[in-house]
Amino acid sequence: MAKAARTAAKVTSIKIRMYRGGTGDFFVLQFKSKATVTFQMMIDCGCIDATKQHFTDRVTDLKAYTKGKIDLLVVTHEHADHINGFKLAADIFKDIEFKKVWFAWTEDDEDSFANDLRKNYSELDKAIRMAVDKLNNIAGNNYFEKVYAMEGDKDEMIEGRKAFVNSMNALNDLNMAGSLAAVTGRPKPTMVEIMKQCNVIKNNTVVEFLNPGDVKSRLAGAAGIRFYVLGPPRNTTYLDLEHSEEGNYEKREKKSKVDFALVSALNASTASGTTSLLPFEHEYEKTGSNESVAIKKYYDTEGDWRKIDYDWLFSAGSLAMRYEASINNTSLALAIQFEDSERVLLFPGDAELGNWESWHDGLEWPVKINGQTEKKKIDYFLSKTVFYKIGHHVSQNGTAKGKGSEMMTSDDLTVMATLDFRRIKPNWLSTMPNDLLCEELINKSKGKFYFSGLRDKIMPNVKTDRVTIKKTHEATLNKLNKPFDGKFFIECEVEG
What we know:
This protein is of the alpha/beta class. The chain has two domains: 10-110 and 188-241 and 330-495, 4-Layer Sandwich (Metallo-beta-lactamase, Chain A), CATH 3.60.15.10; 114-168 and 246-325, no CATH class. The chain contains 19 helices and 18 strands. The strands form four sheets. A seven-stranded mixed beta sheet has the order 8-7-5-3-2-1-18, with helices on one face. A seven-stranded mixed beta sheet has the order 9-10-11-12-15-16-17. A hairpin with a 5-residue loop joins strand 11 (333-338) and strand 12. Helix 7 (154-174) packs parallel to helix 14. The longest helix is centred in the N-terminal third of the chain and has 29 residues, at 112-140. It is globular and about 80 Å long.
Protein backbone atom coordinates (compact mmCIF):
# COMPACT_ATOMS: atom_id res chain seq x y z
CA MET A 1 0.00 0.00 0.00
CA ALA A 2 2.82 2.39 0.87
CA LYS A 3 4.49 1.69 -2.46
CA ALA A 4 1.23 2.31 -4.35
CA ALA A 5 0.78 5.61 -2.53
CA ARG A 6 4.23 6.76 -3.62
CA THR A 7 3.52 5.95 -7.27
CA ALA A 8 1.97 9.04 -8.85
CA ALA A 9 -0.73 8.54 -11.44
CA LYS A 10 0.63 9.17 -14.92
CA VAL A 11 -0.60 12.02 -17.06
CA THR A 12 -3.05 10.70 -19.64
CA SER A 13 -3.84 13.91 -21.51
CA ILE A 14 -2.90 17.59 -21.76
CA LYS A 15 -5.59 20.24 -22.17
CA ILE A 16 -4.22 23.28 -24.01
CA ARG A 17 -5.87 26.66 -23.58
CA MET A 18 -4.72 29.39 -25.99
CA TYR A 19 -5.86 32.73 -24.65
CA ARG A 20 -6.99 35.05 -27.42
CA GLY A 21 -4.68 37.87 -26.49
CA GLY A 22 -4.14 38.94 -30.08
CA THR A 23 -0.91 38.57 -32.03
CA GLY A 24 1.16 37.25 -29.15
CA ASP A 25 1.54 34.08 -27.06
CA PHE A 26 -0.46 33.25 -23.92
CA PHE A 27 -1.00 29.55 -23.11
CA VAL A 28 -2.08 27.43 -20.15
CA LEU A 29 -1.59 23.66 -20.19
CA GLN A 30 -3.44 21.40 -17.75
CA PHE A 31 -1.87 17.96 -17.35
CA LYS A 32 -4.54 15.46 -16.43
CA SER A 33 -4.63 11.94 -15.06
CA LYS A 34 -7.96 10.84 -16.45
CA ALA A 35 -10.32 13.62 -15.24
CA THR A 36 -8.06 15.00 -12.50
CA VAL A 37 -5.77 17.99 -13.12
CA THR A 38 -2.38 17.12 -11.59
CA PHE A 39 -0.09 19.84 -13.02
CA GLN A 40 -0.56 23.30 -14.52
CA MET A 41 1.86 24.98 -16.87
CA MET A 42 1.80 28.47 -18.38
CA ILE A 43 3.77 29.71 -21.39
CA ASP A 44 4.22 33.47 -21.92
CA CYS A 45 1.68 36.26 -21.57
CA GLY A 46 1.84 38.97 -24.20
CA CYS A 47 0.32 40.68 -27.21
CA ILE A 48 1.49 43.51 -29.44
CA ASP A 49 -0.32 46.82 -28.80
CA ALA A 50 -2.27 45.44 -25.84
CA THR A 51 -3.97 47.53 -23.15
CA LYS A 52 -4.20 46.99 -19.40
CA GLN A 53 -7.91 46.20 -19.62
CA HIS A 54 -7.25 43.73 -22.42
CA PHE A 55 -5.04 41.67 -20.13
CA THR A 56 -6.94 42.35 -16.92
CA ASP A 57 -9.93 40.45 -18.32
CA ARG A 58 -7.85 37.51 -19.50
CA VAL A 59 -5.58 37.18 -16.49
CA THR A 60 -8.60 37.40 -14.19
CA ASP A 61 -10.01 34.44 -16.12
CA LEU A 62 -6.62 32.69 -15.87
CA LYS A 63 -6.61 33.11 -12.08
CA ALA A 64 -10.04 31.54 -11.77
CA TYR A 65 -9.22 28.75 -14.24
CA THR A 66 -6.02 27.73 -12.42
CA LYS A 67 -7.32 28.55 -8.91
CA GLY A 68 -4.34 30.87 -8.61
CA LYS A 69 -1.67 28.15 -8.67
CA ILE A 70 0.76 27.51 -11.54
CA ASP A 71 3.26 24.67 -11.16
CA LEU A 72 5.48 25.82 -14.01
CA LEU A 73 5.82 29.04 -15.99
CA VAL A 74 7.91 29.15 -19.16
CA VAL A 75 9.05 32.57 -20.37
CA THR A 76 10.32 31.99 -23.90
CA HIS A 77 12.01 35.34 -24.70
CA GLU A 78 11.94 39.06 -24.07
CA HIS A 79 9.75 40.49 -26.84
CA ALA A 80 6.73 42.46 -25.68
CA ASP A 81 4.24 40.26 -27.54
CA HIS A 82 5.29 37.44 -25.19
CA ILE A 83 5.74 39.24 -21.85
CA ASN A 84 3.92 42.62 -21.70
CA GLY A 85 0.84 40.96 -20.18
CA PHE A 86 2.85 40.25 -17.05
CA LYS A 87 3.48 43.97 -16.63
CA LEU A 88 -0.02 45.11 -17.59
CA ALA A 89 -1.66 42.68 -15.16
CA ALA A 90 1.00 42.77 -12.41
CA ASP A 91 -1.66 43.65 -9.84
CA ILE A 92 -3.37 40.30 -10.52
CA PHE A 93 -0.20 38.23 -10.86
CA LYS A 94 0.79 39.18 -7.30
CA ASP A 95 -2.02 36.89 -6.11
CA ILE A 96 -1.06 33.96 -8.35
CA GLU A 97 1.47 31.43 -7.06
CA PHE A 98 4.19 30.33 -9.48
CA LYS A 99 6.08 27.37 -8.04
CA LYS A 100 8.75 27.23 -10.74
CA VAL A 101 9.84 29.39 -13.68
CA TRP A 102 11.98 28.28 -16.60
CA PHE A 103 14.10 30.65 -18.68
CA ALA A 104 16.63 30.08 -21.43
CA TRP A 105 20.32 30.17 -20.50
CA THR A 106 20.41 33.66 -22.05
CA GLU A 107 18.78 35.09 -18.90
CA ASP A 108 21.30 33.64 -16.43
CA ASP A 109 23.35 36.50 -14.99
CA GLU A 110 25.98 33.98 -13.86
CA ASP A 111 26.57 32.83 -17.44
CA SER A 112 29.44 34.86 -18.93
CA PHE A 113 28.36 34.25 -22.53
CA ALA A 114 24.80 35.31 -21.70
CA ASN A 115 26.11 38.47 -20.01
CA ASP A 116 28.27 39.36 -23.03
CA LEU A 117 25.33 38.74 -25.33
CA ARG A 118 23.03 40.92 -23.24
CA LYS A 119 25.64 43.69 -23.15
CA ASN A 120 25.89 43.61 -26.95
CA TYR A 121 22.12 43.58 -27.27
CA SER A 122 21.92 46.59 -24.96
CA GLU A 123 24.30 48.52 -27.21
CA LEU A 124 22.33 47.55 -30.30
CA ASP A 125 19.04 48.45 -28.68
CA LYS A 126 20.36 51.85 -27.66
CA ALA A 127 21.70 52.57 -31.16
CA ILE A 128 18.44 51.54 -32.83
CA ARG A 129 16.35 53.50 -30.34
CA MET A 130 18.43 56.64 -31.07
CA ALA A 131 17.99 56.12 -34.81
CA VAL A 132 14.22 55.70 -34.41
CA ASP A 133 13.99 58.86 -32.31
CA LYS A 134 15.85 60.82 -34.99
CA LEU A 135 13.70 59.35 -37.76
CA ASN A 136 10.51 60.32 -35.92
CA ASN A 137 11.88 63.81 -35.41
CA ILE A 138 12.73 64.45 -39.06
CA ALA A 139 9.44 62.90 -40.20
CA GLY A 140 7.60 65.23 -37.85
CA ASN A 141 9.41 68.22 -39.35
CA ASN A 142 8.29 67.36 -42.92
CA TYR A 143 11.87 66.53 -43.91
CA PHE A 144 10.83 64.00 -46.55
CA GLU A 145 8.43 66.43 -48.21
CA LYS A 146 11.26 68.98 -48.51
CA VAL A 147 13.91 66.53 -49.78
CA TYR A 148 11.71 64.92 -52.45
CA ALA A 149 9.79 68.04 -53.48
CA MET A 150 11.40 68.08 -56.95
CA GLU A 151 11.23 64.34 -57.61
CA GLY A 152 8.81 63.05 -60.23
CA ASP A 153 7.69 60.19 -58.01
CA LYS A 154 7.80 62.25 -54.83
CA ASP A 155 4.54 60.89 -53.41
CA GLU A 156 5.75 57.29 -53.58
CA MET A 157 9.15 58.20 -52.17
CA ILE A 158 7.64 60.15 -49.27
CA GLU A 159 5.17 57.37 -48.55
CA GLY A 160 7.97 54.78 -48.65
CA ARG A 161 10.16 56.73 -46.22
CA LYS A 162 7.29 57.27 -43.80
CA ALA A 163 6.37 53.60 -44.03
CA PHE A 164 9.95 52.76 -43.15
CA VAL A 165 9.75 54.96 -40.05
CA ASN A 166 6.50 53.26 -39.03
CA SER A 167 8.13 49.87 -39.46
CA MET A 168 11.04 50.89 -37.29
CA ASN A 169 8.62 52.10 -34.63
CA ALA A 170 6.88 48.72 -34.76
CA LEU A 171 10.16 46.91 -34.20
CA ASN A 172 11.00 49.22 -31.34
CA ASP A 173 7.66 48.49 -29.71
CA LEU A 174 8.68 44.83 -29.37
CA ASN A 175 11.62 45.67 -27.13
CA MET A 176 10.06 45.96 -23.70
CA ALA A 177 13.36 45.14 -21.97
CA GLY A 178 15.06 47.83 -24.04
CA SER A 179 12.39 50.35 -23.04
CA LEU A 180 13.02 49.61 -19.37
CA ALA A 181 16.74 50.01 -19.92
CA ALA A 182 16.18 53.36 -21.65
CA VAL A 183 14.23 54.62 -18.63
CA THR A 184 16.82 53.52 -16.08
CA GLY A 185 19.93 54.22 -18.14
CA ARG A 186 21.22 50.73 -17.27
CA PRO A 187 21.86 47.70 -19.49
CA LYS A 188 18.68 45.87 -20.40
CA PRO A 189 17.41 43.73 -17.49
CA THR A 190 17.16 39.96 -17.54
CA MET A 191 13.75 38.34 -17.73
CA VAL A 192 14.26 37.28 -14.13
CA GLU A 193 14.45 40.93 -13.06
CA ILE A 194 11.39 41.82 -15.14
CA MET A 195 9.35 38.91 -13.75
CA LYS A 196 10.22 40.03 -10.21
CA GLN A 197 9.06 43.56 -11.05
CA CYS A 198 5.81 42.09 -12.44
CA ASN A 199 5.05 40.17 -9.20
CA VAL A 200 5.52 36.83 -10.93
CA ILE A 201 8.71 35.61 -9.23
CA LYS A 202 8.25 35.67 -5.48
CA ASN A 203 10.48 34.63 -2.59
CA ASN A 204 9.54 30.95 -2.80
CA THR A 205 9.57 30.67 -6.62
CA VAL A 206 12.21 28.28 -8.00
CA VAL A 207 14.05 29.72 -11.01
CA GLU A 208 15.88 27.47 -13.49
CA PHE A 209 17.87 28.20 -16.65
CA LEU A 210 17.80 25.64 -19.45
CA ASN A 211 20.32 24.73 -22.15
CA PRO A 212 19.85 22.89 -25.47
CA GLY A 213 20.12 19.16 -24.85
CA ASP A 214 18.65 19.34 -21.33
CA VAL A 215 15.93 16.90 -20.28
CA LYS A 216 13.51 17.52 -17.42
CA SER A 217 11.34 14.73 -16.02
CA ARG A 218 9.76 13.47 -12.80
CA LEU A 219 8.20 16.85 -12.07
CA ALA A 220 5.72 16.54 -9.23
CA GLY A 221 2.27 16.17 -10.76
CA ALA A 222 3.61 15.48 -14.26
CA ALA A 223 4.42 11.79 -13.97
CA GLY A 224 5.00 10.16 -17.34
CA ILE A 225 5.97 13.44 -19.03
CA ARG A 226 9.42 14.48 -20.24
CA PHE A 227 10.46 17.99 -21.26
CA TYR A 228 13.20 18.20 -23.89
CA VAL A 229 15.05 21.50 -24.39
CA LEU A 230 15.74 22.14 -28.09
CA GLY A 231 16.99 25.74 -28.06
CA PRO A 232 18.14 28.47 -27.98
CA PRO A 233 21.58 27.70 -29.41
CA ARG A 234 24.80 28.84 -27.76
CA ASN A 235 26.16 29.95 -31.09
CA THR A 236 25.91 33.47 -32.55
CA THR A 237 25.86 32.16 -36.12
CA TYR A 238 22.57 30.42 -35.40
CA LEU A 239 21.27 33.31 -33.31
CA ASP A 240 21.74 35.64 -36.29
CA LEU A 241 20.12 33.33 -38.88
CA GLU A 242 16.54 34.42 -39.56
CA HIS A 243 15.67 33.09 -42.99
CA SER A 244 16.98 31.34 -46.10
CA GLU A 245 15.36 30.44 -49.41
CA GLU A 246 16.19 26.78 -48.85
CA GLY A 247 15.27 26.62 -45.18
CA ASN A 248 11.96 28.48 -45.08
CA TYR A 249 8.74 28.86 -47.01
CA GLU A 250 8.65 31.47 -49.76
CA LYS A 251 7.42 34.88 -48.74
CA ARG A 252 3.93 36.02 -49.61
CA GLU A 253 3.64 37.16 -53.23
CA LYS A 254 1.48 40.15 -52.40
CA LYS A 255 3.13 42.35 -49.81
CA SER A 256 1.48 45.26 -48.11
CA LYS A 257 2.54 48.64 -49.51
CA VAL A 258 3.46 49.85 -46.04
CA ASP A 259 6.28 47.34 -45.91
CA PHE A 260 8.00 48.21 -49.19
CA ALA A 261 10.59 50.61 -47.79
CA LEU A 262 11.48 48.33 -44.92
CA VAL A 263 11.96 45.33 -47.18
CA SER A 264 14.21 47.42 -49.43
CA ALA A 265 16.26 48.55 -46.44
CA LEU A 266 16.74 44.98 -45.29
CA ASN A 267 18.49 44.12 -48.54
CA ALA A 268 21.24 46.64 -47.84
CA SER A 269 24.52 44.91 -47.04
CA THR A 270 25.71 45.88 -43.60
CA ALA A 271 28.41 44.43 -41.40
CA SER A 272 27.44 40.94 -40.28
CA GLY A 273 27.03 39.87 -36.68
CA THR A 274 24.74 41.05 -33.93
CA THR A 275 27.27 43.48 -32.48
CA SER A 276 27.85 45.62 -35.57
CA LEU A 277 26.93 49.27 -35.05
CA LEU A 278 28.20 50.67 -38.37
CA PRO A 279 25.71 53.02 -40.06
CA PHE A 280 27.28 52.62 -43.54
CA GLU A 281 28.35 49.80 -45.79
CA HIS A 282 31.97 48.72 -45.48
CA GLU A 283 33.11 50.30 -48.74
CA TYR A 284 32.26 53.74 -47.42
CA GLU A 285 34.13 53.47 -44.13
CA LYS A 286 36.79 56.00 -43.22
CA THR A 287 40.17 54.27 -43.15
CA GLY A 288 43.24 55.34 -41.18
CA SER A 289 43.86 59.09 -40.96
CA ASN A 290 42.63 59.77 -44.46
CA GLU A 291 40.30 62.77 -44.19
CA SER A 292 38.90 62.23 -47.69
CA VAL A 293 36.12 60.02 -46.42
CA ALA A 294 34.76 57.52 -48.95
CA ILE A 295 31.16 58.09 -47.91
CA LYS A 296 31.46 61.83 -48.62
CA LYS A 297 33.00 61.13 -52.04
CA TYR A 298 30.09 58.84 -52.85
CA TYR A 299 27.47 61.39 -51.88
CA ASP A 300 29.35 64.21 -53.65
CA THR A 301 29.39 62.13 -56.84
CA GLU A 302 25.69 61.45 -56.56
CA GLY A 303 24.92 65.09 -55.73
CA ASP A 304 23.20 64.01 -52.54
CA TRP A 305 25.62 65.23 -49.88
CA ARG A 306 22.82 67.43 -48.57
CA LYS A 307 21.17 64.28 -47.18
CA ILE A 308 24.18 62.83 -45.37
CA ASP A 309 22.96 63.99 -41.96
CA TYR A 310 19.93 61.73 -42.14
CA ASP A 311 20.29 59.08 -44.82
CA TRP A 312 22.53 56.88 -42.68
CA LEU A 313 19.53 56.35 -40.42
CA PHE A 314 17.87 54.21 -43.07
CA SER A 315 20.60 51.57 -42.87
CA ALA A 316 19.31 51.01 -39.32
CA GLY A 317 16.52 48.96 -40.91
CA SER A 318 18.65 45.94 -41.65
CA LEU A 319 20.43 46.27 -38.32
CA ALA A 320 17.09 46.35 -36.49
CA MET A 321 15.74 43.30 -38.30
CA ARG A 322 18.90 41.29 -37.65
CA TYR A 323 18.62 42.29 -34.01
CA GLU A 324 14.96 41.25 -33.76
CA ALA A 325 15.71 37.93 -35.49
CA SER A 326 18.51 37.32 -33.02
CA ILE A 327 16.16 37.97 -30.08
CA ASN A 328 13.56 35.63 -31.60
CA ASN A 329 16.27 33.00 -31.91
CA THR A 330 16.88 33.21 -28.15
CA SER A 331 13.44 31.62 -27.68
CA LEU A 332 13.31 28.74 -25.23
CA ALA A 333 12.03 25.93 -27.48
CA LEU A 334 10.53 22.83 -25.82
CA ALA A 335 9.31 19.41 -26.87
CA ILE A 336 6.92 17.93 -24.29
CA GLN A 337 6.58 14.15 -24.58
CA PHE A 338 4.29 11.48 -23.17
CA GLU A 339 6.71 8.74 -22.11
CA ASP A 340 4.53 5.74 -22.97
CA SER A 341 3.08 6.83 -26.32
CA GLU A 342 6.12 8.98 -27.31
CA ARG A 343 3.72 11.64 -28.61
CA VAL A 344 5.17 15.17 -28.64
CA LEU A 345 3.84 18.71 -28.15
CA LEU A 346 6.14 21.31 -29.74
CA PHE A 347 6.34 24.87 -28.38
CA PRO A 348 9.13 26.82 -30.15
CA GLY A 349 8.27 30.36 -28.97
CA ASP A 350 9.26 32.71 -31.80
CA ALA A 351 12.26 30.63 -32.88
CA GLU A 352 13.45 31.63 -36.34
CA LEU A 353 15.50 29.53 -38.74
CA GLY A 354 18.76 29.62 -36.78
CA ASN A 355 17.14 28.17 -33.66
CA TRP A 356 15.48 25.40 -35.71
CA GLU A 357 18.65 24.53 -37.60
CA SER A 358 20.69 24.34 -34.39
CA TRP A 359 18.52 21.41 -33.25
CA HIS A 360 20.00 19.38 -36.11
CA ASP A 361 23.61 20.25 -35.27
CA GLY A 362 24.81 17.24 -33.27
CA LEU A 363 22.18 17.45 -30.52
CA GLU A 364 20.84 14.19 -29.08
CA TRP A 365 18.46 13.56 -26.20
CA PRO A 366 18.05 10.37 -24.10
CA VAL A 367 14.65 8.72 -24.59
CA LYS A 368 13.53 5.66 -22.66
CA ILE A 369 11.64 3.26 -24.93
CA ASN A 370 10.43 -0.13 -23.68
CA GLY A 371 12.72 0.14 -20.69
CA GLN A 372 15.79 0.92 -22.77
CA THR A 373 17.41 4.36 -23.05
CA GLU A 374 18.24 5.46 -26.58
CA LYS A 375 19.78 8.68 -27.91
CA LYS A 376 17.42 10.39 -30.33
CA LYS A 377 17.97 13.28 -32.74
CA ILE A 378 15.50 16.01 -33.58
CA ASP A 379 13.96 14.17 -36.55
CA TYR A 380 12.56 11.64 -34.06
CA PHE A 381 10.79 14.35 -32.03
CA LEU A 382 9.44 16.11 -35.11
CA SER A 383 8.06 12.84 -36.49
CA LYS A 384 6.29 12.26 -33.17
CA THR A 385 4.81 15.77 -32.98
CA VAL A 386 1.02 15.69 -32.56
CA PHE A 387 0.63 19.31 -31.44
CA TYR A 388 2.46 22.30 -32.87
CA LYS A 389 2.21 25.90 -31.65
CA ILE A 390 3.20 27.69 -34.85
CA GLY A 391 6.32 29.79 -34.34
CA HIS A 392 6.38 33.56 -34.81
CA HIS A 393 2.69 34.04 -35.54
CA VAL A 394 2.66 32.13 -38.84
CA SER A 395 5.41 34.10 -40.58
CA GLN A 396 7.55 32.35 -43.20
CA ASN A 397 10.70 32.55 -41.06
CA GLY A 398 9.12 31.20 -37.85
CA THR A 399 8.90 27.60 -39.07
CA ALA A 400 11.69 25.71 -40.79
CA LYS A 401 10.52 23.84 -43.85
CA GLY A 402 12.75 20.87 -44.69
CA LYS A 403 14.15 20.73 -41.17
CA GLY A 404 10.85 21.47 -39.50
CA SER A 405 7.26 21.14 -40.70
CA GLU A 406 8.02 18.62 -43.45
CA MET A 407 9.38 16.29 -40.75
CA MET A 408 6.07 16.44 -38.85
CA THR A 409 4.62 13.26 -40.28
CA SER A 410 2.09 12.23 -37.62
CA ASP A 411 -1.43 11.54 -38.88
CA ASP A 412 -2.79 13.07 -35.68
CA LEU A 413 -1.38 16.60 -35.85
CA THR A 414 -3.17 19.57 -34.24
CA VAL A 415 -2.00 23.15 -34.77
CA MET A 416 -2.54 26.48 -33.00
CA ALA A 417 -1.67 29.88 -34.45
CA THR A 418 -1.28 33.04 -32.36
CA LEU A 419 -2.32 35.48 -35.07
CA ASP A 420 -5.05 38.10 -34.79
CA PHE A 421 -5.60 40.91 -37.31
CA ARG A 422 -7.38 42.97 -34.65
CA ARG A 423 -4.07 43.45 -32.85
CA ILE A 424 -1.19 43.44 -35.29
CA LYS A 425 1.31 45.92 -36.67
CA PRO A 426 0.29 46.95 -40.24
CA ASN A 427 3.70 46.08 -41.68
CA TRP A 428 3.46 42.54 -40.30
CA LEU A 429 0.66 41.85 -42.79
CA SER A 430 3.26 41.33 -45.51
CA THR A 431 4.53 38.19 -43.78
CA MET A 432 1.65 37.00 -41.60
CA PRO A 433 0.12 34.61 -42.32
CA ASN A 434 2.40 32.82 -44.73
CA ASP A 435 -0.03 31.15 -47.12
CA LEU A 436 2.25 28.24 -48.09
CA LEU A 437 2.96 27.36 -44.47
CA CYS A 438 -0.76 27.46 -43.65
CA GLU A 439 -1.55 25.26 -46.64
CA GLU A 440 1.00 22.70 -45.44
CA LEU A 441 -0.23 22.65 -41.85
CA ILE A 442 -3.97 22.82 -42.55
CA ASN A 443 -3.70 19.88 -44.91
CA LYS A 444 -1.34 17.93 -42.63
CA SER A 445 -3.62 18.44 -39.64
CA LYS A 446 -6.71 17.71 -41.76
CA GLY A 447 -8.20 20.97 -40.54
CA LYS A 448 -7.35 20.63 -36.84
CA PHE A 449 -6.02 24.15 -37.00
CA TYR A 450 -6.96 26.91 -34.52
CA PHE A 451 -6.51 30.66 -34.95
CA SER A 452 -6.45 33.01 -31.95
CA GLY A 453 -7.91 35.66 -34.27
CA LEU A 454 -11.06 35.79 -36.38
CA ARG A 455 -10.75 33.09 -39.03
CA ASP A 456 -13.10 34.90 -41.44
CA LYS A 457 -10.54 37.73 -41.56
CA ILE A 458 -7.46 35.51 -41.73
CA MET A 459 -8.54 32.70 -44.06
CA PRO A 460 -8.97 34.91 -47.17
CA ASN A 461 -5.29 35.79 -46.75
CA VAL A 462 -4.43 32.09 -46.51
CA LYS A 463 -6.35 31.05 -49.63
CA THR A 464 -4.18 32.80 -52.22
CA ASP A 465 -3.92 31.76 -55.85
CA ARG A 466 -0.85 29.63 -55.21
CA VAL A 467 -2.30 27.35 -52.51
CA THR A 468 -4.96 24.66 -52.38
CA ILE A 469 -6.92 24.07 -49.18
CA LYS A 470 -9.16 21.03 -49.25
CA LYS A 471 -12.80 21.94 -48.64
CA THR A 472 -13.18 19.13 -46.11
CA HIS A 473 -10.20 20.46 -44.16
CA GLU A 474 -11.55 24.01 -44.16
CA ALA A 475 -14.92 22.71 -43.00
CA THR A 476 -13.24 20.89 -40.11
CA LEU A 477 -11.28 24.04 -39.23
CA ASN A 478 -14.48 26.10 -39.07
CA LYS A 479 -16.31 23.43 -37.07
CA LEU A 480 -13.55 23.18 -34.45
CA ASN A 481 -13.10 26.94 -34.06
CA LYS A 482 -16.78 27.90 -34.01
CA PRO A 483 -17.56 26.86 -30.39
CA PHE A 484 -15.03 29.44 -29.19
CA ASP A 485 -16.40 32.40 -31.13
CA GLY A 486 -16.77 35.30 -28.73
CA LYS A 487 -14.74 33.63 -25.96
CA PHE A 488 -11.45 34.72 -24.39
CA PHE A 489 -9.78 31.46 -25.34
CA ILE A 490 -9.61 28.42 -27.59
CA GLU A 491 -9.05 24.92 -26.23
CA CYS A 492 -8.13 21.47 -27.38
CA GLU A 493 -7.04 18.31 -25.57
CA VAL A 494 -4.20 16.02 -26.62
CA GLU A 495 -4.41 12.43 -25.50
CA GLY A 496 -1.29 10.64 -24.33
